[in-house]
Amino acid sequence: MTRREIVFLAIAIVAVLSLPVAYHQGQTAVKQEVVAAFASVRGEPEDTQVAPCDDARLTINDWHVWRDDSRFAKPTPGIQHLAFDVSLMNTSEQAINVNPIKCRLQDTNSREYTITGPGPEPDLPMRTLQPGESMRGWVTFQVPNSIKPLAVTYAIDLQRTQIVRVDL
User: Fold this and answer.
1) Helix (H) or strand (E) holding 104
2) Which of 103, 104, 112, 121 has its Cα between 20 and 30 A from that of 158?
3) What percentage of residues in the chain have a pLDDT greater than 90?
4) What angle do CA 152, 158, 161 make, to 5 degrees?
5) Ramachandran region, residue 158 (left: φ > 0; alpha: ψ -120 to 50; beta: rest)
6) Taking the CA atoms of the chain, what radius of gyration do you get in angstroms?
7) 75-107: per-residue pLDDT in tens?
8) ∠ CA 108-14-71 to the nearest 5 degrees?
9) d(CA 115, CA 90)
């Protein structure tokens, strides 16, 4: 098992055990470990979209449908993986702890989805972001084919009282 697979397995375990909030038509979605490969289907925003807030700035640089072509994954009918290349900048005067499990995807039916694990590289890492620092990486969401993505959010704190949002 590669280092990358071990990291994503650990993230998936933490997400499943502590944040069971990914909903798939009202039911908790099961998180799966997947290994990367790109699909040719792309959905890029017309312009880079930025949502400022007091403590952070979230930017979506690109997004597309991502397909896992590995021998370990079997395609699930009606399910797709949406991958977002995001940048996060600490605009506060204090350090913030960045964790990709704080990212969510919202759809037009007010459902929220948490990240589901491996996708394109590099992944959005877990680390402390000092004032003025920024980082970039991919976050991937497993969602029904029928959803219409509305926004990507990032919670500065675990209580989700400070949320940065970018509308798609």
Assistant:
1) strand 103-107
2) 121
3) 51
4) 70
5) alpha
6) 15
7) 689 999 999 999 999 999 999 999 999 999 999
8) 80
9) 21
Closest CA to 37 of 64, 16, 60, 6: 64
Structure tokens at 133: 């620092």
Could you tell me the CA-to-CA distances from 145 to 13, 51, 79, 80 in Å, in that order? 25, 26, 5, 6
Domains and CATH numbers, the chain: 3-167 (2.60.40.1240)
Q: What is the 3-class SS of 4-71, one letter each residue?
A: HHHHHHHHHHHHHHHCCCCEECCEECCCCCCCCCEEEEECCCCCCEEEECCCEEEEEEEEEEECCCCC
pTM of the full structure: 0.68
Q: Tokens at residue 140, please?
A: 């991937």
Sheet of 163-167: strands edge to edge? 112-114, 103-107, 149-155, 163-167
Q: What is the DSSP letter of 123?
A: B
